[in-house]
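#dry-run=false #mode=assembly
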Amino acid sequence: MPVGAVIEFSNITKRFGDVTAVDDLSFTVEPGRVTGFLGPNGAGKTTTLRMLLGLVSPSSGTATFGGLRYHDLPHPLATVGAALEAASFHPGRTARNHLAICATAAGLPSARVAEVLHLVGLAEHGGQRAGVYSLGMRQRLGLACTLLGDPGVLVLDEPINGLDPEGIKWIRGFLRDMAAEGRTVLVSSHLLSEVQQSVDDVIIIAKGRLVHRGPLSSLETQVAPQVVVDSPDRAALASALSQAGVAFSPGRTGLLAAATDPATIGHIAFTAGVEVSALHRQKKGLEDAFLALVDGGDSL
Amino acid sequence: MTMLLRAIRAEFAKLLTTRIWWILAAVLFGYIGMLSGGLAALFAGIQSGAIDPSAAGTGTGTQGTPPLGSLPPLVYSFASSVGYVFPVLLGALATTGEFRHQTLTPTFLANPRRAQVLGAKVITLFLAGAAFGAIALLASVGIGALVINAFGVDTLLGDSATWSLIGRTVIAMALWAAVGVGLGVLVPSQVASIVIVLAFTQFVEPLLRFASMFTEATAGIATFLPGAASDALVGASIFTMAGPVGGATSTLDWWQGGLVLLAYAAAATVGGYFVSWRRDVT
Ligand SMILES: Nc1ncnc2c1ncn2[C@@H]1O[C@H](COP(=O)(O)OP(=O)(O)OP(=O)(O)O)[C@@H](O)[C@H]1O
Ligand SMILES: [Mg+2]
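#status=ok
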């Protein structure tokens, strides 16, 4: 079983002329876990991953796999499998030939080509030219490339973009399995909700800067818990909440009360004799926390 | 070493898994075959007396026809003197295609040693250019000799000089493909690259070479133009025969021509490495 290596970014910075795309980022990504690398459009995710993979040279700082830069890995594809956003294939080349070329260049056995095509569900389409592939099929082909060398580290840039619901379900399971086998899995996305179900840790950047890192649960503590409550008589509900000393604000589907437990709000309404038509915990807590964190980032 | 071999095998696979190589090869064969067959028929017809020179086109008479004995090498050399644009295009397309289709990303992920990848590409295209040379010769010598023979003119195929011309043509075509790779990294925009190849080979250089023949000094400089160097390497060309009457015609030795062409390929490739190849892939 391939073992994952620790990915380490230390003080990595990239400037394109006047634009600082990535600004002094430092963080580590551990094996055996799925790490979500999140940020709004233009936050610098792709640039950071390209620096990790030696495709873009950092203005300063380093990015390494178990202490080695990508360029210094003795067997890059057998160590790291990377699929970058807008995976690039020659439109006139078949998927099978594309994979065979990668395998040849990396010195991997050509028998792997059929195996990985099968793994990503493209076995029947291997002979088609990549130019006729749909976005989802290209994503799968990109993923097939990452698996060629059965690497211990996976670096995937927006792998969920363009996948159908079945594909999304499949890739979530796939990411979990990979991490469970002890591999390092780094997945970028501009939507927390897209990866929320599969990540253990999150790294959030905005405007090229680190704004949050930690386990997914650490995000929950970032937002005050809220309970959504509604009544046919909102005015009565509002005064009942005020009298009980609960802060609240008007929301789209009712009042947003600052409370952890819906039961406490229910009790307040009950004792005030106010009819309740809706009562539940605010579910979008994580997404809100994410948005609050990246807000300074002027998402596009 | 095994790493370089691997890289070369990958480059060959890249070249052979898209359609451009055989499209170019087919057009090369057809174009050179028609030109060699047609001109061989015209000149051999005149030489053998089968065609009346005054009926042959513009009425310049026998002035434009080559002296007896030089016709076969002239016809055979069409393979490179006219066909050289094809290996250049092949090399340029193979290189600029990587930028255009963003395949540099998978390429550099599989092999992050970029200089090695570029070296492998040059070697691969050099060999592919040699194959293009063989295809072009199949057209110019194959069809040309058939026609020449049909008019009862000596094909000179028993002559060792003819065979060394054939061998040098293969080398020239191989070098031209390497020049194409160099151009491709120097000018990674595919459209710009193609425009430069076509404009330079079909228009700029022929014009420069023709104009330079009127004085000694410019003629000397013009021998270092890539097309002139290639013709010197091959040893016969339509240009060296179609100059203005009494004009200065100096050429390099064949090996000097080869070195000049090699220098163009090397300079463009090394320059292109710094201009585009080692840059950020975004
Ligand atoms: N080659 C380049 N030249 C100049 N600026 C660039 C280049 N590549 C990226 N940038 C800039 O760097 C910043 C970060 O871009 P990047 O693609 O890394 O963001 P991202 O987080 O991947 O965004 P998205 O979610 O849209 O994929 C952007 O402002 C972008 O305009
Ligand atoms: Mg991106």
